[in-house]
Amino acid sequence: MSGAEGRSAARDGDGVPDATVGINPYTETLSRRLAETLAELDTVTAGLAKAKEELRGATYAVRSRDRAVEVTVGSQGQLTDLKFLDNRYRTMSPTELAASVLEAATQARDSMSRHVMMTMQPFTGPRPGVPQLEGFEIDWADVFGPGVLEDPQTATARTGRASLRDEIDEDGED
């Protein structure tokens, strides 16, 4: 008996598989797991597309502590707007104004980076429906800089304007 005859013997006259031939449980399990994995992949792909679209138009605005400037950044941390508020800049020294701009820009960039991290977090962890996909680690400090992992209040205290002014003032004292 050839291989073709063996296959045709397992089917009835209408080409429907013969009920007496058992289904391979390994193939059935593999097919089910593959279908679940593909469905999860579709879910992740749709979620990533939605996250990408949301992040594409995201902005974050921060006012400096002295409320002299407001800086807005885009999703990639790029400066998109800078406003000088209530003419306060007119009474500030250039060093003070620069420090206010840098403070607000750093805070806005770090806040946007944290927003990106939170938006992408569901896609980096293990997938509940597919235990084989364990997720992956992203070194966010490497991507955005170490400030992104700090508490915003701690980061503000660390990057205080007084130290920046001292450094700028010292540069001019030659």
Structure, described:
- The chain is mainly α.
- The protein contains six helices and three strands; from the N terminus they run ααβββαααα.
- It has helices at 3-9, 25-56, 94-124, 140-144, 152-158, 161-171, and strands at 59-63, 69-74, 79-84.
- A three-stranded antiparallel beta sheet has the order 1-2-3, covered by helices on one side.
- The radius of gyration is 29 Å and the shape is elongated.
- It starts with a helix and ends with a helix.
- 11% of the residues are buried.
- Residues 1-9 and 156-174 have low confidence and may be disordered.
Distance between the termini: 100 Å
Largest sheet, described in full?
3 strands, antiparallel
The percentage of residues in β strands lies in 5-15%
How would you state the average pLDDT, rounded?
76
Per-chain topology:
Blueprint lengths: L2 H7 L15 H32 L2 E5 L5 E6 L4 E6 L9 H31 L15 H5 L7 H7 L2 H11 L3
Antiparallel strand pairs: 1-2, 2-3
Helix pairs in contact: 2-3, 3-6
